[in-house]
Amino acid sequence: MTTHHAKKTLFYIVFSLSIFLGVFLYTNRVVAYKNIHEKLSEWKLIPIPETYTELYFEDHASLPKQTKANEKTTFSFTIHNQEGRVVEYPYEVYFKYTKLGWKVLFKEGTVTLTPGESQTITVSHTWRSSELEGKVVVELLDSDHYIDFLFPNTN
């Protein structure tokens, strides 16, 4: 065997071992990282993105302040999905009388939103009486989310 041939063989052996060692170390590093990440997640040390739903009135400063017979009231509310998944939101909008606790349904429906998507819903209602006392409630039925505003509203 010539020196040149021996050097060439040694080079291929070292090169092959280097490739094998590199692949071996990389694979173990990926597996080790996965195991470490799983363990840290199990211990709740890895931050988890917060998920929530936003529910709010549009232009809240101009919400109706009182009821007037035969007058139409219009307002809008928005549902914004920040849950990180597709969510179906069944909702009801109603007036709840303060003294009697009765409920008068204005609108109901269901909205399906993809992550990050929002939808604004407009509600109109013509009052039969003036000076009613109570509150208008927007309620998401499959959760504990609701918003409301009072009549009369002195703000």
Q: Describe it for me?
A:
The protein is α+β, with helices and mostly antiparallel strands and 155 residues long. The protein folds into two domains: 48 residues; 100 residues, Sandwich (Immunoglobulin-like). 26% of the residues lie in helices and 39% in strands. The chain is built from one helix and seven strands. Strands 4-3-6-7 form a four-stranded antiparallel beta sheet, with no helix packed on it. Strands 1-2-5 form a three-stranded antiparallel beta sheet, with no helix packed on it. A hairpin with a 5-residue loop joins strand 3 and strand 4. The longest helix is centred in the first third of the chain and has 40 residues.
In short:
This protein has one helix spanning 3-42, and strands spanning 52-57, 72-82, 87-97, 103-113, 118-126, 134-140, 146-151.
**Strand order, largest beta sheet:** 4-3-6-7
Structural class: alpha+beta
Rg over C-alpha atoms, rounded to the nearest angstrom? 32 Å
Percentage beta strand:
35-45%
Number of domains: 2
Query: Percent of residues in helical segments?
Result: 25-40%
SSE string? HEEEEEEE
CATH-defined topology of the largest domain: Immunoglobulin-like
Number of helices: 1
Uncertain stretches: none
Mean pLDDT: 85
